[in-house]
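wait is this the right file?? whatever heres the structure
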């Protein structure tokens, strides 16, 4: 929920008095909100109030971004000094969620200075924040007209987006997810003016905006705004009403609608989900298999079975699998494609989801895959595979090297092929094309099956929230061996 900006009191504080803030934050918590976004720096007393009500605060660091701020080096230096001073006010407070080093630098200013200079200045401010509070999360709140800014140093991506048609918002969220790449995406402002559209329309619009954002895999969404009370540029703004409450804090219909929408995230509780079969194929994967199965056990999906196909392992893979609630199928070593087919034939689910024995899923992995199947005609769906931290410097380098397993997209929604560590298919479609080609013993099977499905005129979908964490090779020797195997698979594909 956004809070402010408000008319400053005689001491220059741009927030309501503590008693009013206490009442506001109590009602926010009561209605299911957990984050407050401010546009100016709050006093620590306001952070204390937020903490009492279980709220985190995303603090905006204001500066004169609507002028050509880089034309004067002294102005740029002064901005950095003020950012540092502002961070010190809130640094390390337990209610602090993140700092935003800017909000919607106008496109005309970005064009005037040039993209690279603006990117460098935002990076400079981010470094200044980290210098003052090295544990803080830092973002910059972008908007559609400057979506081209490349800001890979941000801890998460944040966008203000106001679209009043549901299909347009779905399409743009998919685009933003691809811009965000592996970082979390937060909708930093969504909303609708009830003065121009009516209070009932505002309530309806916010309901579907919240659902759309979280179905698209956003890490969160912030509603603009708590109240119609709004002060900017030295004036009270009287000609728009974006608040969920009126200026006297009486509730609009949107407050109840938003509460209901947030209570059903990321998906409604009364949905009838398809039965899913997760297949994990392993050959001497005991080093990482336990981690995979532990995380599969934590999936927040009710109707799921886990099948482990042990493809002739000589290590302790089978013994590890027997310690978990899975169906273990042991076979002679026949290669990866044969193991995938074994899992497919044994699967009882309508959808067969494949994960590698050196990967582990996000708890909502299956929900996002299933939701895509339920709302599209795609016969296959996948998501990103992200390297986890802590695997060491070689694995970190390999994660940034070319040649890793990655999805290839035709559009923001449709894939050309999906990597085997994170792919799911309708079982009927796999059976229709005869399953995986068993000449592919180590690699290449995923690309081949995707092409076979597409030759039938079927399509493959992509959901950026269907995340698995995938360990990269942590030695040069193993990475080199992987690339040789990939090369042989490419020849087989050709």
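ok assuming it is, sequence goes like this
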């Amino acid at each position: 929920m956004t809070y402010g900006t408000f008319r400053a009191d005689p001491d220059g504080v741009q927030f309501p008095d503590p008693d009013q803030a206490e009442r506001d934050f109590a009602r926010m918590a009561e209605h299911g909100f957990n984050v407050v976004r401010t546009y100016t720096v709050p006093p620590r007393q306001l952070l204390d109030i937020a903490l009492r009500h279980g709220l985190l605060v995303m603090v905006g660091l204001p500066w004169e971004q609507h002028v050509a701020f880089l034309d004067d080096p002294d102005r740029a230096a002064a901005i950095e000094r003020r950012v540092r001073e502002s961070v010190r006010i809130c640094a390390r407070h337990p209610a602090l969620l993140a700092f935003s080093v800017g909000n919607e630098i106008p496109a005309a200013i970005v064009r005037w200075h040039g993209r690279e200079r603006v990117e460098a200045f935002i990076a400079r401010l981010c470094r200044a924040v980290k210098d003052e509070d090295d544990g803080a999360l830092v973002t910059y709140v972008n908007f559609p007209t400057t979506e081209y800014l490349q800001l890979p140093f941000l801890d998460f991506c944040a966008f203000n987006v106001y679209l009043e048609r549901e299909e347009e918002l779905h399409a743009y969220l998919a685009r933003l997810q691809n811009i965000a790449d592996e970082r979390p995406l937060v909708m930093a402002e969504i909303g609708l003016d009830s003065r121009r559209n009516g209070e009932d329309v505002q309530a309806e619009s916010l309901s579907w905006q919240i659902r759309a954002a979280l179905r698209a895999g956003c890490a969160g969404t912030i509603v603009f705004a708590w109240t119609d009370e709004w002060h900017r540029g030295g004036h009270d703004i009287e000609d728009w009403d974006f608040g969920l409450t009126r200026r006297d804090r009486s509730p609009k219909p949107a407050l109840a609608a938003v509460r209901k929408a947030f209570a059903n995230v990321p998906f409604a509780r009364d949905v009838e989900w398809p039965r899913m079969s997760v297949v994990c194929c392993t050959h001497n994967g005991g080093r990482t298999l336990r981690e995979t199965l532990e995380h599969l056990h934590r999936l927040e999906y009710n109707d799921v079975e886990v099948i482990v196909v042990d493809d002739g392992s000589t290590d302790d893979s089978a013994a590890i699998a027997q310690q978990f609630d899975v169906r273990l199928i042991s076979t002679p070593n026949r290669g990866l494609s044969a193991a995938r087919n074994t899992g497919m034939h044994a699967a009882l689910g309508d959808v067969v989801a494949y994960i590698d024995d050196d990967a582990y899923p996000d708890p909502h992995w299956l929900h996002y895959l299933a939701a895509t199947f339920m709302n599209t005609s795609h016969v296959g769906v996948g998501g990103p595979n992200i390297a986890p931290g802590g695997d060491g410097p070689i694995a970190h380098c390999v994660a940034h090297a070319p040649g890793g397993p990655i999805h290839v997209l035709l559009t923001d929604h449709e894939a050309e092929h999906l990597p085997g560590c994170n792919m799911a298919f309708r079982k009927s479609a796999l059976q229709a094309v005869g399953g995986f080609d068993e000449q592919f013993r180590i690699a290449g099977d995923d690309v081949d099956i995707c092409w076979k499905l597409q030759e039938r005129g079927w399509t493959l979908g992509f959901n950026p929230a269907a995340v698995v964490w995938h360990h990269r090779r942590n030695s040069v020797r193993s990475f080199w061996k992987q690339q040789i195997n990939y090369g042989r698979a490419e020849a087989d594909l050709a």
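The first helix runs from residue 18 to 30. so i think its the right one actually
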